[in-house]
Amino acid sequence: MDLNELKKSALQLLARREYSTQQLQQRLQTKTTDDQLVQQVIVWCQAENYQSDTRFVEMLLRSRLGKGYGPLYIQQECRRHGISMTLLQQQLAQLEPDWLELAQSIYLKKYGGSAITSASERAKRQRYLQQRGFYPEDCSAALKNIRS
Q1: 92-146, pLDDT tens digit by residue?
Q2: DSSP three-state, residue 113
Q3: Nearest to 20 by CA among 60, 53, 69, 64
Q4: How far is 62 from 50, CA to CA, in rounded Å?
Q5: What is the pTM (predicted TM-score) of this model?
């Protein structure tokens, strides 16, 4: 595969959705074994502003916050996509999400106003919030605030 064909493949991918640099690199490497050619195409895509890790993080944050995921889940997903924690922190600073409010809303969506009847039920509900990526202190505060 030559340079122009690889550029065309990259543009077809990026026309559908945002990709991180790492994701785009992985996709392009399935089309050719020439790593130098892949790097050339990635640099070209970034120079032409077709690919941007900043835009990818913005898209990821909007999506995950909308689905009710917490900071730990989002950090893990960014690591998996090869996004630097510095870039993630910059984007989070702009959005300033209220993690406690998000934890409470996702809790209410799942459990409504039903009472916690036992310690095991409380632990189960706290685990649910932790699995969604919230810090333990936010999980405890969300459960406490909802009971109040």
Answers
A1: 999 999 999 999 999 999 998 788 889 999 999 999 999 999 999 999 999 888 7
A2: coil
A3: 53
A4: 20
A5: 0.90
Q: Up-side HSE of residue 130: CA atoms within 13 Å toward CB?
A: 9
Cα Rg of the chain (Å, integer): 20
Indicate the length of the chain as a whole number. 148
Residue with tokens 């543009």: 11
Q: Is 58 exposed, middle or buried (0-12, 13-18, 19+ CB in 10 A)?
A: middle
Q: Which of 37, 4, 35, 41 is nearest to 19 (CA)?
A: 41
pLDDT per residue as tens digits for the range 38-89: 999 999 999 999 999 999 999 999 999 999 999 999 999 999 999 999 999 9
Cα–Cα distance for residue pair 10/4, rounded to 1 Å: 10
